[in-house]
Amino acid sequence: MEDPGSTLVSLLRSLLSEAQAGLGRQSLDVDSLQTKASELQSVLVALESSALNSTSSCAALKQPQTREKTLLCCVPVEVAERILAFVPPTSVLKLRRLSKQFNAMILSQPFIARNLRTYLGHSVTSSPPFGRASRLFEDCARHYLAWPAVYQRVFTDLHLYPRTTLHWAHKNSIRAGAPIPICIARLASSLVELDLSYCKLAGEIPSEVFELRLLESLQLHENGISGVLKADVGRLMRLRVLNLHSNQISGFIPAELYTLTELRYLNLGHNCLDGLLDASIGRLELLRVLYLNHNHINGGIPQALGSLTNLEYVSLCSNELCGPIPIELAEIAGLVSCNLKQNVGLTFDEDSDVISF
Prior knowledge:
Blueprint lengths: L3 H18 L8 H24 L3 H6 L1 H4 L9 H8 L4 H5 L6 H7 L2 H12 L10 H14 L4 H12 L4 E3 L25 E3 L6 E2 L13 E3 L4 E2 L15 E3 L6 E2 L13 E3 L4 E5 L12 E3 L4 E4 L13 E3 L4 E5 L2 H4 L6 E3 L5 E3 L7 E2 L1
Parallel strand pairs: 1-2, 2-4, 3-5, 4-6, 6-8, 7-9, 8-10, 9-11, 10-12, 11-13, 12-14, 13-15, 14-16
Helix pairs in contact: 1-2, 8-10
């Protein structure tokens, strides 16, 4: 396996090369950088020699008592700042452990802005980038959820606002268990569709998500999201699609959910929800798809569910429902499928081609 110290040496060599190649077209303090270039080069040579003779140069980077002896820490921070601005953000973040000074510099907002602008360009549009810019942007998108919060915030301000859609399903292949970024609220005046499904997310849905007042579609399915569905969901008055299936959400369905009268698609299946299915569900008159399957919802099916005449697909299977099935449910003209299986307490006296239980 390649020694970590040698890897860092190779990385810094390539950074220096990129910086020198780009001097003519970047608005940098050329004199300041060039006067330090030869010093930096000698530091890299010395480090390479040290790395080859060390049994574990990586340990030197991890141990506080020897960190000050690491030759990389001799690189003046002001020089490193200018060089590292040319580097992909993910590579930059790997150098945070070199010293406290490096860590502070890399996580400073001015450096992050310079780094992202140098790497991705200055353009901010409401549409995704194309060509090479698109490839670089996608690389950042794959790592975004694993970045420190300050990097997420600056990236959101510079390269996501004022987008109306953010479809990032399957984007997080780096770090499982990342939380939903709270800086997403910075898109409150533009974002209409948010899709972070299949991103290995964990933790609760932060209140900041419910500040996205223009949101019409929220898809967070197939993650590890836990906690309760907060009453704040009722603030998303324009919501038409809410898909949270296959998470670990628990507790009652909040009454505020039934105030979202624009909903067409509601999927809370495969969670840990319990409590009663409230009669207020009858307020969702535009609802076409309702999936609450594989939860722990108990009590009876409210008669009000049969008043939702736009329903096409319903699944309440694998719950703890009991009592009679409202006859009105079978009389919905456009109902294609209604799955009520594995609710041992349900009873139904009529034949139906669409209701199965």
